[in-house]
Structures are given as structure tokens and as C-alpha cells.
Design brief:
Layout (H helix, E strand, L loop, with lengths): L5 H8 L17 H11 L1 H9 L6 H6 L9 H10 L4 H14 L11 H5 L1
């Protein structure tokens, strides 16, 4: 059994009456779906996908400060190597974000001067 009994445990947990309702996804992949997932996870497919990335706009998007954008480690690596930005510039953006959202108290306490050193 390749699932290690996870499906069995989830089905048993769903039958316990006093347990709070919890979402246990139990979709069984078809052979076609499984093949599609395997194909999508192959390295060559990922490299092809990344080669189509619009490198020209990375710097412009990165410098926008009006919205949050998720960047992967690979994105940062490319930008640092190409000279489009530096880790210090990115840390300044993080500090500005912390200051802007300080009223929400969602960040741990920090001293901006210490971070800049």
C-alpha cells in the first residue's frame, strides 16, 4: 500500500461522532490524473516552464511597493546575480512593510538599526 494507510485513518476519523468536523481530502486520482501529475513534476517540464519566465519585467515588478508579490528563492537568486537588486534593498522593503503594518502587531519586535547592520 503506497499511501501508508492514510486513507484508512481518514475514513475512520470521519466516523468518530464526538470529533469536530475536519476536512480530510479523499480524492482518489485516476490513472490519467496521476500521469498528468507525474509529467508536471518532471524536472525537464519545470525547466521549460522557467525558461518562459518574463525576465524583463522582474525588476519593475520587484520595485513596486504598493502591493505584495510572492517571490521564490530562484527569483531572488536571478535578481541578485543580474544586479537588479541587492539583499539590502530587499531588507529595506521588508522594514518599510513592518513599519506600515506596525499597528496590526503581527511582527515580532525588532530594531531597524540592528537589522540594517
Amino acid at each position: 500500500n503506497k499511501t501508508g494507510g492514510v486513507r484508512f485513518v481518514r475514513s475512520m476519523a470521519a466516523q468518530i461522532p464526538d470529533m469536530p468536523p475536519t476536512y480530510y481530502p479523499s480524492h482518489h486520482l485516476t490513472v490519467a490524473e496521476l500521469e498528468e501529475h507525474v509529467k508536471a513534476s518532471e524536472v525537464s517540464g519545470g525547466i521549460k516552464l522557467l525558461s518562459n519566465w518574463p525576465n524583463k519585467s522582474i525588476h519593475q515588478e520587484l520595485m513596486r511597493t504598493d502591493q505584495f508579490t510572492f517571490w521564490s528563492i530562484m527569483d531572488y537568486s536571478k535578481m541578485y546575480k543580474s544586479g537588479h537588486t541587492t539583499p539590502s534593498e530587499q531588507m529595506e522593503r521588508v522594514l518599510k512593510g513592518c513599519e506600515k503594518l506596525s499597528h496590526l502587531k503581527i511582527y515580532s519586535s525588532h530594531l531597524s538599526e540592528d537589522v540594517r547592520q
